Amino acid sequence: MKPTPKLSPLHTRLLAIVAGIPSGWVMSYGSVARAAGLPRHARHVAVALKAAPTEREIPWWRVVNSEGRISPRGLDGSDDLQRILLEAEGIIFDASGRVDLARFGWGG
């Protein structure tokens, strides 16, 4: 069994923001960082999500990039799963695969 990584206080802070994104809304990595008071730490959001224990219910799928797109992870099917989960919550993607952040972006 894989050991659970210890989350840093920074990661815990970022994950708390992601945990608060309601169903039917998204935030960009940068928006999550800004909401946590860490405007220059957008890349740490992805690191925090990757380090989050799987037993915690963190809605990782509600975080998209600054263009409203799903960021490729290089894992088979994870990008498709994220889109399926978002669409199940009522999020609409345009023909180019973008979410309208003005419409679906959560401001916290």
Approximately how much helix is present in the residues? Answer: 25-40%
End-to-end separation in angstroms reads: 36 Å
Oligomeric form of this entry?
single chain
Q: How would you characterize the largest beta sheet?
A: 2 strands, parallel
Rg, Å, rounded: 13 Å
Structural class: mainly alpha
Rough shape? globular
Mean pLDDT: 89
Annotated CATH topology? Arc Repressor Mutant, subunit A
Order of helices and strands: HEHHEHH
CATH superfamily: Winged helix-like DNA-binding domain superfamily/Winged helix DNA-binding domain
* Estimated share of beta-strand residues: under 5%
- Second rung of CATH, namely the architecture: Orthogonal Bundle
Unreliable sequence segments? none
Tally of separate domains: 1
Strand count: 2
Strand order of the largest sheet: 1-2
Number of helices: 5
Q: What is the CATH class name? A: Mainly Alpha
Organism: Parachitinimonas caeni
Pfam families: DNA_binding_1 (PF01035)
Keywords: DNA damage
Domain Methylated-DNA-[protein]-cysteine S-methyltransferase DNA binding: 11-91
